[in-house]
Amino acid sequence: MRDLAQGVARFQEDVFPAKEGLFAHLAAHHAPHTLFIGCSDARVVPELITQGEPGELFVVRTAGNLVPAYTPGANGVTASIEYAVAVLGVTDIVVCGHSACGAMTALAEGHDLRGAPVVADWLRHADAALARTTGTEAGPQKVGALVRQNVYAQLTNLTTHPCVARALAEKKVTLHGWVFDIGTGRVEALDVSGTATALAS
């Protein structure tokens, strides 16, 4: 906690004064352009990766960047998606997977999750990705393949949400799949054909 408190002090003394005008504007305006769905992993920081300013990204972070398919009823992930799309009117949605993902590693390597039953149940949202991953890869290659397939699977799950389906039909939102490599800082953009291109070298 001491490090966090020192960080808050630095923010208040150095960062906030330099962006005081921006924060004054944000105090009364909330209009992010992108819903960024990423992993809860502490090494994956959307605002750092994109170098975005405060107010630009509406961020949802879940273990494994998983997006449950739509079901009626209260759900924190679903509510956040609906708010971003239907209320805030974001024009882009990014689902971002990443290298060395603990959730995907657990699935790819068949880890024993009996001690974490809620985690095991949550990871069922990646069943489709696991089914699409061929058995030819091993080790890091298998994890990497699953990470990519999982991004596609979660994009598919997104389209089951009525607000997203409606926005797509009305051409008001665009979906994007990314994979962030922690070790190199590279970000790959996945397309519907399954190929990947670097966003920046």
TrEMBL record:
One GO term of the biological process aspect: carbon utilization
Cofactor note (record): Binds 1 zinc ion per subunit.
Enzyme Commission number: 4.2.1.1
Catalytic activities: hydrogencarbonate + H(+) = CO2 + H2O
Alphabetized UniProt keyword annotations: Lyase, Metal-binding, Zinc
Entry-linked Gene3D superfamilies: Carbonic anhydrase
Residue ranges crossing the lipid bilayer per the database entry: none
UniProt binding sites for Zn(2+): C39, D41, H98, C101
GO molecular function per UniProt: carbonate dehydratase activity; zinc ion binding
Keyword Aminoacyl-tRNA synthetase attached: no
Reported cofactor(s): Zn(2+)
The protein's name in its UniProt record: Carbonic anhydrase
Organism whose genome encodes this protein: Streptomyces cinnamoneus (Streptoverticillium cinnamoneum)
